[in-house]
């Protein structure tokens, strides 16, 4: 299921989302002594990252990671890790911990095993998940065009897997739907008229394999908070 929050301006959305996420992270640290958040890359979240980085939070108890990463070096413009370091892990958030998905040169089975072990023991379930959405209805790196889509959507998937999209650049590492789904608070951050059209299309039908974002919008066990601004 989902809830739609609409904003007239992107800046207004960024602040509202940063306030909401800051409140959840503060409460999680107060309750458990630590908190975790997975964010998405792409062009949408920069303003939100900047707004969240200004928040006075117990950042040293908070672990930040990515819902998915492109398998590129941190010096690349396409690196989500770089985007997060340059925009979120700044200001008051410099002391946050970061769980790296891109480790080493090659994404081998051993690398995945190590990451899966570390994620399961120290990171999951996430307190906060911020998703983005592509024009094809992908979210995280759950790409409808990839050979791995059934595996990525399967209930028995491991936390992390490799995905090779056919219509987007770069090999990816992504959290699987089964493990993203366990997040305690799920947000979908989108902006612009074309994303609104994609959202409407996603809500019209139910085939998850065709538009993986539907897995989050339709599942009765998930309350996806959609934040949209023109
Ligand atoms: C990535 C993402 C991906 C992204 C959407 C939306 O690394 O590509 O995590 O899922 O959130 O593609 O991207 P835009 O914000 O650029 O539209």
How would you portray this structure in words?
The strands form 2 sheets. Strands 1-10-9-6-2-3-5 form a 7-stranded parallel sheet, with helices on both faces. Strands 4-8-7 form a 3-stranded antiparallel sheet. It has helices at residues 10-32, 46-53, 80-87, 109-122, 149-153, 177-180, 193-204, 214-218; strands at 2-7, 35-39, 62-66, 68-70, 97-98, 128-131, 160-163, 172-175, 185-191, 224-229. A hairpin with an 8-residue loop joins strand 7 and strand 8. It is globular. The model has no long low-confidence stretch (mean pLDDT 98). The chain is α/β, with parallel strands linked by helices and 230 residues long. The site of 6-phosphogluconic acid (6PG) has 15 residues, from strand 4.
What structural keywords apply?
single chain, 230 residues, alpha/beta, seven-stranded parallel beta sheet, 8 helices, 34% helix, binds 6-phosphogluconic acid
**In order across it, which strands form the biggest sheet?**
1-10-9-6-2-3-5
Strand content: 15-25%
Shape: globular
Name the poorly predicted regions. Answer: none
Query: Structural class of the secondary elements?
Result: alpha/beta
Helical stretch tally: 8
Largest sheet: 7 strands, parallel
Name every ligand kind in the structure. Answer: 6-phosphogluconic acid
- Helices and strands, in order, run as EHEHEEHEHEHEEHEHHE
- State the helicity in percent bands: 25-40%
Write down the overall mean pLDDT: 98
Beta-strand segment tally? 10
